[in-house]
Amino acid sequence: MFTVKTIIAHFALSYMFWCSLLLNVQTTPPGIPLIANYFTTKGRYEEANPYLLVDILAVNKSLVNPPLEECREIHLTAIIRHGTRYPTSRNVQKMRDMHQLVQNAPEGKSWVREVRQWKMWYTEEMDGRLVQKGVLDHQHLAIRLSKLFPLLLSKRNLQDGHIRFMTSSKHRCVNSTMSFYEGLVKLWDIKDEELDFKVNDTLMRFFDHCARFVETVGKNQSAMAEVDKFISSAFMEGVQKKMADRLQVPFSNVTSDMAQASFYLCAYEFAIKTINSPWCQLLDTEDALVLEYANDLKQFWKRGYGQDINSKSSCVLFHDVFSRLDRVASEIRSGSDVTEAVTIQVGHAETLLPLLTLLGFFKDSMPLTSSSYVKQRQRAFRTSKISPYAANLVLVLYDCSGDLRLQAVLNEKPLAFPGLSVHQGVEGPPLYQDVREHYRDLLQGCNFEKECQLFPSK
Ligand SMILES: O=P(O)(O)O[C@H]1[C@H](OP(=O)(O)O)[C@@H](OP(=O)(O)O)[C@H](O)[C@@H](O)[C@H]1OP(=O)(O)O
Fold it and tell me: Which residue's CA is the nearest one to ligand 1's atom 20?
């Protein structure tokens, strides 16, 4: 349960947030950039769960465990994005160009001087590697999940080999997997144990192996047409103009890439070093909302509802998860032990977003387009909340006196399966059978090979 301190802090933070919205004044805690809630996939997990700012190990059991007394958790699959990372080499280049532009800006305000004096320390070699904060993200997540699901994430299950680890081959994911394991080993003071994990890109980087996705989306810039249109829109121009005014440089010198680079400089300095960098002074809330929307458009059209193949490329992961749930269900029904209590699968934002899309989560009534920025202010598809660093989708199977129930939890908050009504008005997670029925078409179809064929046979 939450401690009193956490509850008070949670309400204080929420009160400050709503004041800032109503009064449109900065009331974010000092040290946190005013625009920190809009960093999309470059954002910290803590901004999605502000109570963690007070106690990084706080959990709210009542939120995720079923209120039904007779339930006990019997299996957990967690699909987790890696922790906080360095920028990719492509973005380091954009950030370096932005830093260069500021060198030639006139002195101006004090923060401009600070930005001019700021040392560009990012290098291409960093290329998305995990940082120390990313190690802590996963260590802390492991401890919180073990507090939420103690029957599953237990010392006994770890030592008996009932907790399985799988990761993408990318260094940030391998190191995140090791950090998650370290969190448990430290918690239970386990010595002389070796982490046994599998690298499986077929599952964790399915998008690389889906020819139709690679050719029609990954390599096809026209699939990003709405993103490109928005980046050339008056909204983005407005951001560039304000930046040019603040820096007192010609508007023509401030490209949309530079606007994005300033956003990233503020985001990475904060996420990696917890610094409210002078770069954050270059953008106000309205600017951040525009840049947030540009990034959400990218994720929508490349990983979300924008193209059907985005979500269908995750069929292989969908079937992997449900075949394991089916296996556990039959083990329970036959009275035998559950062979795999916990599966930890570490991947990317582009592992999580297509699967969430396939399951129908965070779907808005209208698609995100270059012309719907204003209408989509309250959109459900907001990656700042869905897929920050260490974002995690946890599927928990419960045995409730013989009835199997399945709960979805995203970033430690329960998710209702879209379109699945509560079973006969009974509170708590739906019956597993009802979830399977709800996804019957996907379970019987969603054939990865067929969906990913570049030229589908008739
Ligand atoms: O804009 P960058 O180069 O950072 O984009 C990265 C992806 O980062 P994200 O857009 O999710 O913030 C990165 O995803 P991650 O979950 O591993 O951080 C992805 O692996 C990398 O290839 C870049 O994605 P893109 O779609 O190729 O731009």
Answer: 348
